[in-house]
Amino acid sequence: MAKTIAICGHVMPDGDSLGSELAMGIALRKMGKEVLLFSPDPVPESYSFLPAVSEVKHQHEDNNKKFDIFISVDCSVPDRLGSFTELMQQSEQVVIIDHHAGSTVFGDLYLNDPEAAAAGEIIFDILKVLPVDIDSYIAQCLYVAIVTDTGSFRYDNTGPETHLKVAELLRVGIPAARINKQLFEEKPLVSLKILEEALGTLMLSECGRIAWMCVSRETLKKLDALDEHVDGIINYPRMIKGVELALFYREVDHDTFKISFRSKYNLDVNKLAALFGGGGHSRAAGCIIEGDFESVHKKVLKAAMQSLEDAKK
Q1: DSSP character for 76?
Q2: Whole-model pTM?
Q3: What is the maximum alpha-carbon separation in the chain?
Q4: CA dihedral 292, 226, 44, 243 (to 10 degrees)
Q5: Rounded-to-integer distance, Cα 143 and Cα 50, Å
Q6: Residues 50, 304: Cα–Cα separation, whole Å
Q7: Which of these, 130, 162, 175, 255, is most buried using a 10 Å CB contact count?
Q8: What would the pLDDT profile of 229-260 be if each residue is shown by its tens digit?
C-alpha cells in the first residue's frame, strides 16, 4: 500500500495546476498519507491565499528520498514538470491527471479527460470515490482550479457538469466572492505598468481578425517584473470586436519568444500552436519560438491567417 506520495504541477503554475495539486494533497493527507507538494517554478503571489500553498516547494531537498507514487497534475508532457522529471522517474509508480487534448501518454496510470474544463474537475471526481470528505480547504482549491481554467465560466469548456460540481463546492461554504476578488480584481502595480507598455504595441491585421501585442525583455527587466505579472494580458487584444485570434509575444531570452494564442469562436489554437511545437486547448494554447521578432511574427501570422481560412471551410 502506498504511503509516500509526491504531487507536482507544471512549470509557470496557474490556478488549475496549483488548485488541483493542493486539493489532492490535502485530501491524501486526511487519509493518512505522507504527501510532499512540488512546483517547478515559485508560486505566483496571486495564489498565496490558497490553503497549504506555503508547503509547495520548487526544489527537492532530499535527493535520496524515493516515493511510492508520483502524481503529475495538469501536465500534457513530462518536460512541463521541469527538474522534477527525474523525481518522477525514480518513483515506484507514476499517475498522470490531465485534461489536455493530444497529451503525451506517460506514467503507469493515465487519467486524461479532454472534455473536463479543468484538471480540478477530474480531481473532484476522484475525491468523490475516495474515503475522504471535501472540506472547505479542498473546496477552495478546487474552486480556484475550475474558475481560473474556465475564465470565470466564460469559456467554451464550461458545461453543465462544471456548474453542478461548482454548486457542490459552494454548498461546502467557501468564500467565493472573496476568492474572485483576490484572483481577478487585485493586481500589483507592475502588472498594470506592463499592460501599459504592451498596449503601446497593439496591432491588427488588415482583415481585422487577428490582433497582437508584445513585451520585450528590456521592458520586463526595467519594471523588475516576474512571469506572473504578464498573466491575463493576452485577453485585451482578444476583447476587440471582430477579432477572432489574439497573439501575445513575450521575449523570454535573446531572440526567444513565448507566444500565447487565444481564439474567440471557431479557431482551434491548439492545432495552430502545435505547428510550432506547442499545444494547449482549443481556445487557449502557447509555444516557444526562437528567432528575431520580425521573422517569428511573420511565420506565426502566416500560419494564423491560413488557420483562419481553414476554419472558414
Answers
A1: S
A2: 0.92
A3: 61
A4: -50
A5: 11
A6: 37
A7: 162
A8: 999 999 999 999 999 999 999 999 999 999 99
Q: Could you tell me what percentage of the chain is helix, strand and coil, using 3-state DSSP and rounding each to the nearest 5? A: 40, 20, 40
- C-alpha cell read off for 23: 486539493
Asked whether 289 and 255 are in contact (CB, 8 A), the reply is no
CA distances from 222 to 194, 217, 218, 241, 256 (A): 10, 8, 6, 32, 18
Q: Supply the pLDDT for residue 46.
A: 93
Which residue, 88, 66, 69, 63, is CA-closest to 77? Answer: 88
Between CA 25 and CA 59 the distance in angstroms is 17
Instruction: Name the grid cell of 47.
Output: 495564489
Domains of the chain with CATH codes: 4-184 (3.90.1640.10), 189-312 (3.10.310.30)
- For residue 211, what is its C-alpha cell? 490582433
The H or E element spanning position 289 is: strand 284-290
**CB under 8 A, 24+ apart: contacts of 166-173:** 168/134, 169/124, 169/134, 169/139, 169/142, 169/143, 170/143, 172/134, 172/135, 172/136, 172/139, 173/136, 173/139
Dihedral (CA of 55, 56, 61, 63) sign: positive
Residues facing residue 38 across a β-bridge? 8, 57
The length of the chain is: 313
Q: What 3-state class would DSSP assign to 246? A: strand
Kindly tell me the burial class for residue 155, based on how many C-beta atoms sit within 10 Å of its own C-beta (0-12, 13-18, 19 or more).
Answer: middle
Dist CA 288 CA 296 (whole Å) = 10
- d(CA 59, CA 211) in angstroms, rounded, equals 38
Measure CA 1 to chain center: 32
- C-alpha cell read off for 236: 485585451
Task: Tell whether the model's pLDDT for residue 313 goes beyond 80.
Answer: no
